[in-house]
Prior knowledge:
By secondary structure, the chain is mostly beta strands. It has strands spanning 3-7, 10-12, 18-25, 34-39, 46-51, 57-59, 67-72, 77-82, 91-97, 111-115. The strands form two sheets. It has a six-stranded mixed β-sheet, with no helix packed on it. Strand 4 (34-39) and strand 5 form a beta hairpin.
Amino acid sequence: QVQLVESGGGLVQPGGSLRLSCSVSGTIMGMFPMAWYRQAPGNQRELVAAITSVGGTVYAESEKGRFTISRDDVKRMVYLQMDSLKPEDTAVYYCNRYPPWPEQNYWGRGTQVTVSS
């Protein structure tokens, strides 16, 4: 069974930076595009950024130029470097395949990012 464990979130002031990490186990991660998603209170989960198995990337429009997704298939890790953070980036951040695996229990607990002064 796939296990996804996110970490690296926290409280940061506007304009600050965070680096999120996701550990992937139970599958050959290198076979799949991977992505970061986020869910703010009262909102649906949305795509933040995705990376293909060969390193191609795509970002949500509001994250272009501020966030950078990367992957290390040897370590089975996916990363999200977030710079110039804004209060509207406040959410729980999750990693998953792109598109997500259909199994709902594959979603991890996520990591909370709070941007506030």
